[in-house]
Amino acid sequence: MKKILLYFGAAVAFTIAGCQDKLKENPHSTLTPEFLETPQGFQMAYDASYAGGRTVWGTMDYFFMTVPGTDEFISGKDGSNDMNKYASGYTSTTGTMNNVWRPCYLYINNCNGVIAAADKLKDFDPEKKARMVAEVKFLRANYYFVLVQLFEDITVSTEFQTQAKTSADKQAGSVAFDQIVKDLTEAIPALPAGPFTEGVVPGKTSKAAAMHLLSKVYLFRAGGKYAKPDDFRNAAAVAVDLIKNVAPGAGLRLQDDFGRVFAEGNEDNSEVLWTVQHTSNLPYNGPGNSSGHDNILNHLWVPKYDELDGMQRDVKYGRPYIRVVPTRWLTDTVFKERVIDTRYKKTFQVAWLSNNPDKLPKWPSPLPPGAPAGAVAGGPKYKVGDTAIFMPGVNKTDAEIAAAPYLMIPPRKYNTSMSPAMIKYYDTKRADMNYPSIRPVIVWRLAETYLNAAEALYKDGRPGEALEYINAVRRRAAYPNPNPQQMDITAADLNIDFILDERSRELCGELTRWFDLVRTGQLINRVVLHNTDGQKNIQGRHVVRPIPQAQIDAVTTGAKYPQHPLWQ
To answer: Which whole-number Å values give the CA distances from 240 to 14, 105, 462, 475, 506, in the listed order?
Structure first.
């Protein structure tokens, strides 16, 4: 049986029909190179190129590589004990790496096929073809950016592979960065302005999304060994151009209320630059729950509320996978200010209403001092629909806990089963509690563009210019306070630690944190300071992911495929 390095992805049975209002899936047979050069085949391969987003954003594998093992989250009771904790079991054989590596290369090859076929395609609208090729270059840049951020030095190919290969070369990460920048700079002029431009359906890309990605690419490269002298300046220029010039004409702006950005059903709001679409068509979208292309972000933060008095599992509160819980640094320090800054209460669930009449707790006899008026020894503490669990976010005495008419969990009582639960991906519209989410995954939004601009300007030696962008995000966080300027900072407040803290307050849980810490050189330092899981285990090699052993073993011809030097 032949082993292959890259995979021809056009046979994937998930397509995004470009002329439809909603995501649609149609199983189809393998697309041959000859068929790709026909209008029908070209359209199908183009559609299939988008499907790769589902194998990255929304899956547990990519979640494990970007969210836990940082200063923001540690393992929950049902979380991983290897990657999350940088433990000895975390090696190149850990399947998580290959579960991201393989599909990215599959869809890169799919994109290569579309781009190669475009020159040979006859009887096809030239303008439409140019736009489709631009979109596919954006997608290829995406997949390569995922890989180079995680693995640093990777294989880069723009050739369409139609035969199995048993040999492969690995290039320096600089090659990948150059290819990504090339793809994006070529794509941007041919793309529609934004997601609200006529003819752009949800999930399709735009100039705004490609510019945001390009800014992120410059910013990430600027912090690593392949940095170029003008990377921070370029990152700032692209982000500012998007904010000042492209966004207004494309109908893009920050939402007035931070709480509306991730509101269920509002995923196509004015702040969202690009989403990965999912569907309620279950034969194509689950309920696999833990693998493949399902969006299971709705499950991964849900605590074990169902094991407590007055509660049972339901669709509203979700299935308790509890893969991660927030660090005390995140809840107690980063989100310490909760009077003017509203983001804590709009990011975390801290209260649960009783939904189980068979598990109502009773008052003890005698009643504890301070019990509320109307409490009766031996009687129920509350009824269904009343608060059953509440996390006040500040410490309470044992006497206050005992007197509360619900289970009160102050910070000192947080544990890996019950802690504040990140709510950005909750999905109450599923047909069954166990099903994955049908919500689109918000991959990028304009608030991050503002933070990218602020960071790039600061690193380029222009902190005064950076304030406009970071203060815009902070002022929005005060909504509906009539004096949002109370959130403003000055140039003296600005440093990389403040910027990273602000990114946590704004982007917590949005599949970016591991990358943010790596590119700023802060991963090891912040894990040691704030992550009780990994602080004793993290080593220098953990700033990059190991090349999957499956990839190394698949190369059986020619030179051995090299592991990253830090993992040898």
So the answer is: 36, 32, 13, 18, 19
Q: Which tokens sit at 466?
A: 């950076």
Write the pLDDT tens digit of every residue in 382-401: 999 999 999 999 999 999 99
Contact 115, 133 (CB under 8 A): yes
The residue type at 289? N
Q: Which amino acid is at 500?
A: L
- The pTM assigned to this predicted structure is 0.94
pLDDT tens-digit map of 280-311:
666 665 545 555 688 999 999 999 999 999 99
Q: Which two tokens stand for residue 564?
A: 């990253």
Cα–Cα distance measured from residue 222 to residue 516, given in angstroms and rounded to the nearest whole number: 12
pLDDT value at residue 2: 33
pLDDT digits (tens, 9 = 90+) for 102-116: 999 999 999 999 999
- Cα 137 from Cα 185, distance rounded (Å): 10
Nearest to 194 by CA among 244, 154, 248: 248
Other C-beta atoms within 10 Å of 505: how many?
19
Sign (positive or negative) of CA dihedral 103, 287, 438, 62? negative
User: How many Å apart are CA 552 and CA 563, to the nearest integer?
Assistant: 7
**CB contact set of 71 (below 8 Å; sequence gap of 6+):** 327, 329, 330, 504, 513, 517, 526, 527, 529, 530, 531
